[in-house]
């Protein structure tokens, strides 16, 4: 389990309270979160997972149908590190975690400066985090942030350079729903103002409250 998970909840609850942009209910039981009555009362789901999620076929279909109906799916960091055998989830999120060669201060490239999810970010952006790389990259994503490869050692152990580079935040569509994912969010970065702005912007864009 990521030790930062409880703190991530605190930060998101603080952003909800301070901005009024959203309200949230926290679940550690994914079956409870995906219960039909809970989904009926929600406009979006935020995943920050810990290990392989135990979703049966009915819960998986409820998740896909919920987003496709016009609701939001937001994923932080390890939300791409689960459900590897369910390709529909990889297509929803946009790719699967494939290692983290760096955990250090890095620079970010703002790829879509006019995107409303990035309205709280001002270039240049640097932060310290565990940096993911991805496999099974899905076409159709709009990359918002990517790694500034000039700020890392591309010869470090485990680095796998792919055609899609090193995206760190992106958006997707799933049916009528909006998907926002960022690979960032491993540890103390949750206290970083730029990361909090990204988290808030992503949630607001995905839920249509930007």
The major beta sheet can be summarized as:
7 strands, mixed
Strand content: 15-25%
Whole-angstrom Rg:
16 Å
Shape: globular
Helix content: 25-40%
Instruction: State the strand order across the main sheet.
Output: 1-2-9-8-7-4-5
Structural class, judged by helices and strands? alpha+beta
List the uncertain runs: none
Number of helices: 6
How many β-strand stretches?
9
Distance between the termini: 32 Å
Q: What string gives the helices and strands in order? A: HHHEHEHEEEEEEEH
Could you characterize the architecture of this molecule?
The structure is a single chain. It is built from 6 helices and 9 strands. It has 210 residues and is of the alpha+beta class. The strands form 2 sheets. Strands 1-2-9-8-7-4-5 form a 7-stranded mixed beta sheet, sandwiched between helices. It has a two-stranded antiparallel ribbon with strand order 3-6.
């Amino acid at each position: 389990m990521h030790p930062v998970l409880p703190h991530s909840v605190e930060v998101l609850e603080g952003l909800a309270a301070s901005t009024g942009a959203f309200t949230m209910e926290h679940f550690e039981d994914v079956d409870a979160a995906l219960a039909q009555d809970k989904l009926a009362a929600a406009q979006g789901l935020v995943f920050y997972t810990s290990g392989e999620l135990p979703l049966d076929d009915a819960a998986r279909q409820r998740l896909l149908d919920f987003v496709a109906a016009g609701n939001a799916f937001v994923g932080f960091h390890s939300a791409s590190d689960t459900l590897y055998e369910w390709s529909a989830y990889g297509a929803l999120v946009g790719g699967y975690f494939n290692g983290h060669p760096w955990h250090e201060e890095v620079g970010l490239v703002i790829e879509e400066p006019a995107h409303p999810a990035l309205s709280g970010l001002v270039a240049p952006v640097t932060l310290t985090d565990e940096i993911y790389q991805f496999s099974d990259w899905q076409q159709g994503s709009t990359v918002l942030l990517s790694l500034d490869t000039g700020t890392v050692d591309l010869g470090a152990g485990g680095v796998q350079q792919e055609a899609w580079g090193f995206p760190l935040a992106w958006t997707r569509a799933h049916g009528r729903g909006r998907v926002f994912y960022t690979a960032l969010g491993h540890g103390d970065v949750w206290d970083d103002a730029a990361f909090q702005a990204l988290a808030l912007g992503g949630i607001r864009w995905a839920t249509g409250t930007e």
